[in-house]
Design a protein that fits this description.
two-stranded antiparallel ribbon, 33% strand, globular
Length: 147
């Protein structure tokens, strides 16, 4: 039985932001590495597609990022026994929907990615990032200034 899930509701569009998000996780002590052109480790290796990027995690399973026709990357992962979530999952309460629970397993990565993608978009739009902080509840606060 396969436990492989594809998440399309949180598309990855900015590889630079993904790379920075992985570096942020590493700085927090998460053992992970972003590699190119590989298959993520999942239960039943034949069920994993080759992905353009793979977040190699410390543990039995990885997270793949598969290029879509629209230029974004969907997330491919194995949800079995929350192995991914134990390494990069959100710290907030578990959502009640299946999609929410799946996204929850990627919580830290999605938060770091969203922060970095927002910073990149702000800079591209001509803003200067004065600060980027995360409060005790996990909310990210960005302070921008016009240039």
């Amino acid at each position: 039985m396969s436990h492989v899930t594809t998440i399309k509701t949180v598309p990855i569009k900015d590889i630079s932001a993904l790379t920075k998000a992985v570096a942020n996780l590493q700085a927090k002590g998460v053992k992970c590495e972003l590699i190119q052109n590989a298959k993520p480790r999942v239960h039943g290796a034949d069920s994993a597609p080759k992905c353009e990027y793979v977040l190699k995690l410390d543990g039995p399973y990885d997270v793949g990022f598969k290029l879509q026709k629209d230029g974004s990357y969907s997330t491919v992962m194995d949800t079995y026994q929350n192995h991914v979530g134990k390494r990069i999952g959100a710290s907030c309460p578990l959502p009640s929907t299946q999609e929410g629970r799946t996204q929850h397993q990627m919580g830290q990565l999605f938060q770091e990615y969203t922060k970095e993608a927002t910073i990149n978009a702000a800079i591209t739009s001509g803003y200067m990032v004065e600060s980027a902080t995360t409060d005790a509840e996990g909310n990210v606060h960005l302070t921008l200034a016009g240039m």
